[in-house]
Structures are given as C-alpha cells and as structure tokens.
Design goal:
Layout lengths: L1 E4 L5 H10 L11 H16 L9 E7 L6 E8 L10 E11 L4 E11 L6 E8 L8 H15 L7 E5 L11 H9 L5 H9 L4 H6 L5 E2 L5 H5 L9 H10 L2 E6 L6 E6 L4 H5 L1 E7 L9 E2 L4 E4 L8 E4 L3 E2 L5 E4 L1 H7 L6 E6 L3 H5 L22
Parallel strand pairs: 6-7, 11-16
Antiparallel strand pairs: 1-2, 2-3, 3-6, 4-5, 4-9, 5-8, 7-10, 9-10, 11-17, 12-15, 13-14, 13-17, 15-16
Pfam families: AstA (PF04958)
Keywords: Acyltransferase, Arginine metabolism, Transferase
Protein name: Arginine N-succinyltransferase
Length: 374
Amino acid sequence: MIIRPVAATDLDTLYRIADESGPGFTSLMPDRDALARKIDHASASFRRDIEAPGDEHYLFVLEDEETGAIMGTTGIEARTGQTRPLYHFHHNAVVHHSRDLGLRRQVETLTRCSHYNGHTEICSLYLRPEYRRANAGKLLSRVRFLFMAQHPERFADTVIAEMRGVSDHAGQSPFWNWLRQHFVDMEFTSATSLVGSGYTDFIEELMPAAPLYTHLMSDEARAVIGKVHPHTRPALRMLEAEGFRHRGFVDLFDAGPTVECGLGDIASARRSTQCAARFAGAARPGKLSQTTEPVIVATTGTKDFRATVTDQAWIDPDGSAVTLSRQLGDQLGISEQAAVWLLPLNHARADSGKQPAHPAAIPADEQGERHYAH
C-alpha cells in the first residue's frame, strides 16, 4: 500500500468513490467536472512554495502497489473559510432566571455561527469496502498528521474534522427532517449537494439565525445532535485517540459533531520523527532494533510525497537512521541516506490508556469526514 498525491489519471476511480460513498459524504461529489477541478487544485497545492497556509487543498490516494487499484482517499484543507464562511450550529446551554419570582431554568440551544473559519480541516477519509485490511484505515488517517508535522508552515495552529451525522440508508436525516418541516423545504441530499458545490447563499436566506431551543424539536431530531453515523464511529475513535475533542459545534444539516485539536497536540504529529534511510546490505539489520509494531515510513517531499506502512524496519539505537528493504526504498522512490519520517502506527494505545480492538477490526470509516469542498 502506498499513499501518494492524487493525479489526473485517478479521475475515473475518484468518480466511482464519489458515487459509491453515498449521501452525506460531501467531500467528494459525483460530478466529473468538479472532481477534475479538485484534482487540479490539489496538484497545484502540492507544487506551491508556502510560507503561510492559504486556499491549498491536499488530496491523497491509497494505491495497491500490486494491482494499481485505488483503495481509498484522504485529504487536508489548509485553511477553511477563505472563499466563503464555514457554518455550524453551536450547541450550548442557556439559563433563564427570575430573581423576583425565584424561578430558574436551563435550556439547550443551537445558534448558527461561523466559528471555525481560518482553521485547517482534515477531510475526505474514505476506505473502499473491498479493500478493508489491517492497517489501511490507520494509514489513511494518520499519514495526514505526519505530513502536517513535516510542513507546519502550510497549516493553521488548530485542526478540525467535521464528522458525518446520523442518517438512514436512504440518506434521510432526522435532524434535517425537522429543519425542513419548519424552515427549508428541500431534500437533505439537495441541501448538502448545494453546499458541496459551493452555493451557500440559501443558508443566510433560509436557515434560522436566532437560537433554536432544542426542547421544541422532535424527539428524533434532538436525539441525534452531536452524534455520528454508526459507520463513522471508528473514524471518530481514531481521532479521539489523537487528542481531538468535540467543543459543541455541530453540522447545520445532520447535526454531526465537529472535533478539534491543536496541531502541536495531535499525537501522531508529536510522535513523528525524521531520520536517514539505509537499505539492508549496507547495514546488518540483525544487529539493530527491529520495530515491534508496524511503522509508517514517509518521504519528505510534497508533490512527490510517498508513504507506506511496514513491520520490516530496523532503527539505530540513537534513532538517527532506519534500515529498510531495498524493495520498500524503490516503492518510496528514495536513495541511500535520504531523509524519511517515521511514525509508529499503533502509538495511540499508549496515549489513550485503552485497549483497542485488533487493527483489522478498526477500519477507516467509508463515510467518516465530510468537508463541504469547493
């Protein structure tokens, strides 16, 4: 498995992914022209010399080296809200108190806002069902944090992820059904498609700006506020193990939670280290310390970035070099003594203090992170 930047030749597969991912996965919409523009934008972003984050969008694909098939996607939006606001509801508690009457009541509200403009957003995490295998989901999720650790000048100090909320197999959202009944008479898929294509005027025109009292909502709508789709739970657990937390901001359409973490606080960013690559034969791996668990190995470039996961890595005692197989070096396109970055794949076990399931049982969610892309 090799992670690399998306290329123009991936358009057909990207379209199939956008189609098969279904309603609610707004990161990739089944529009061939829009996807072609997204690929062009990503390619230009990888090529730019950057001093501060702008409108760059980095889209990676996971490729099966044996067959050339695209197994999944993962992406990073360098800075949200550059061309239009990123809207959310803020889920909050308000206290009504009358001192004279001695009455006090706390109620929950949802207030429309654009709190997260200017932050980096991770998005487009999708692992195709037929390619679910050990470590694929973790590689797709964590490689982004390793890339951000390599190139912090390209990203904001805070990183967010918008998680897909609750909807049924037909794409019907209990939360949106209540909003539609009272405010916006539009199908859920139509609303998300409009925003995914870049049209947001109707949010200001039709979506409520005044606080919504959640106790006036239907039981079905209120029950899913801040909850994720069942298929999204593995992706959320991985982000929580990285240090991401929900601060009360939810999606306008399905009330899925947005989670956030400081870039310097993300576990994978903190655990990523740089060293020199050597190949078996130049050193004797048997005299070195073999990694006890799989490790992500990545190159240091941008437009030619490559990353993979291996359990065949021997690290020098001082951590200055890693010995790899010549075959893996060829897959990454690196030469002897080239700089590479390493990240233990299962580091979150120590950070979280929990016993996770076997890696094969924690696939990346096929519909995990939405992102209303341009």
